[in-house]
User: Fold this.
Amino acid sequence: MKAPLRQNSDLYMKKNEIEVLFTKEQIQKRVEELARQIEDDYHGRDLVVVGVLKGAFIFMSDLVRSVKTPLACDFLRVSSYEHDKNTGVVRMEFDTTQPITGKDVLLVEDIVDSGRTLRHILKHMEAKEPRSVKVASLLYKETGAGIKKLVNYIGFETPDRYVIGYGLDSEGIYRSLPYIGAFK
Ligand code: IMP
Ligand code: MG
Assistant:
């Protein structure tokens, strides 16, 4: 049986099995660019940034620290993946805790693939009657699902491969990699 990967050192030893798609430096630069756009777009607004756990936690923490205008942070959690496969059923595991009615909400996602998760969350958020809801996703997988118009801020477009790192996991591991990669 394969030994489970438990430590960061093991993750880095596995590096030669992972193809780096976006380096730490590329990600940092792109996060700064997105932060400038968000500052311009939300200047003087009552902004609540809502991170979709768990995948968005690293992107969100870098993004909110780069945005120089005041904002509130909240989180929700949905799940649809089991063993790296999309089950097709989106479950809301926990919801935001502060009122968002009348506020400008920026949803932060790690990756939009089929868009099923995003549609589900958007419907859920819109029922709370915020002033606006926009979406920032670190990655957008070009799978032809035709939902690009729902994503206002895209970090990078990725090929249709299973990606890991910078928040994204495979069976719960690899979220802590500082870059985004895919298995070779
Ligand atoms: P969608 O509902 O098909 O758009 O899938 C979106 C969610 O599935 C994301 O928020 C991720 O949590 C997960 N996901 C989709 N593709 C990947 C991937 O390549 N790597 C890791 N997680 C993924
Ligand atoms: Mg996710």
Summary: The longest strand covers residues 72-82. Residues 25-179 form a domain with the Rossmann fold fold (CATH 3.40.50.2020).
